[in-house]
Amino acid sequence: MTKISNxxxxxxxxxxxxxxxxxxxxxxxxxxxxxxxRERAEAGRDRAIKLAxxxxxxxxxxxxxxxxxxxxxxxxxxxxxxxxDAAVKRAIFETLDRLRGPKTIxxxxxxxxxxxxxxxxxxxxxxxxxxxxxxxxxxxxxxxCELIAHPGTDPGVVAITRDLLLTLGREVVETRDTPAFAGNxxxxxxLNEVAQLAAxxxxxxxxxxxxxxxxxxxxxxxxxxxxxxxxxxxIVDHLFASTHDVAHDQFALPRYMREGIxxxxxxxxxxxxxxxxxxKVLLPEPGTSSTAEVxxxxxxxxxxxxxxxxxxxxxxAEGPDAQLLRKIILGYxxxxxxxxxxxxxxxxxxxxxxxxxxxxxxxxxLVDAIGPGRTIVMxxxxxxxxxxxxxxxAVHQRPLFVEPIDPARFFPVARAAAA
Length: 419
Prior knowledge:
It is a single chain. With 419 residues, the protein is α/β, with parallel strands linked by helices. The chain folds into two domains: 7-175, 3-Layer(aba) Sandwich (Rossmann fold); 183-418, N-(1-d-carboxylethyl)-l-norvaline Dehydrogenase, domain 2 (Orthogonal Bundle). Helix content is 48%, strand content 10%. The protein is built from 19 helices and ten strands. An eight-stranded mixed beta sheet has the order 3-2-1-4-5-6-7-8. Strands 9-10 form a two-stranded antiparallel sheet. The protein is globular.
């Protein structure tokens, strides 16, 4: 097989299954949606058609149930998008191992479970045709994508899958099979760190401190509400159990969040809301509203004439607000570039996944604006690790960020200046 010509989506009724299936169908690939019941598969197809905004008709996607799994023998790609539960996924892969064709590629859309562990115990043919494809939700809008092989994946399978993803308009970053891969490992480190700090400083304060002026589409706590508290907890719990590096403690889910999840506080998708509800800001204690003035450092950065000027404000400002924000941003830079060599091959890989997957200003862009040498000095003062990639950029006086991406995508001040 030289390319993927048809796809079967399992778990097609879920948000990721329906959205990824829409991508396949929009590319003209014969696509089959399978779910536990025909009604669920049909609901997934309806969702895919809605996401396609009139570019798909019902006959573009065939539907069926898991009773129809025998048809995976003719599939070029089986795209598994069931719930993020390793035991459920492994049970499905055991069945697929018996039914798939000898060249059928099986891809899991897991956001962080070990790819090697998911195919452990399967046949050699299955393992050589198995890999991870982490799309960011919703994939109809977010083009960032992680492609994850395990040691037994056939390089040809990786190449064929990469070609398909590029055809689908994905910005593909290949990562190693490490906990939560690259994007979620760095992104949820920052999100959970801010959630931890909210227990002391308050929700309103933290989301205004680490707001859009720091180069992100949404403030961190609003992002967690969008993702869902339960999903956030699953990712950081996995990282806390699986990683033992400098960020380990920042992956510990705050107690107030675990208690909130237990009573149904799950973010936007729940009646109780999360950090926010009906336009009101909540403290970690459920039902208590909070207001806070914009921290001085945030106001000063928002008033800057450019994103470079805003980062200059961040570097030069004094006071507890500035110190706390610097610690968070410097931690993002240090940990992100520190993943180079362990999780990704090059600095541009971590930059691309944060830019295209999280829609955050990537670490390299921040370093170039601040200056590599100055960043090193600030990291040392903050007692944070100085990544080798940063040292090399300073020694050779070369930029870290090499992608043709306009900073206005991330910084309101940059958009205002461009206008």
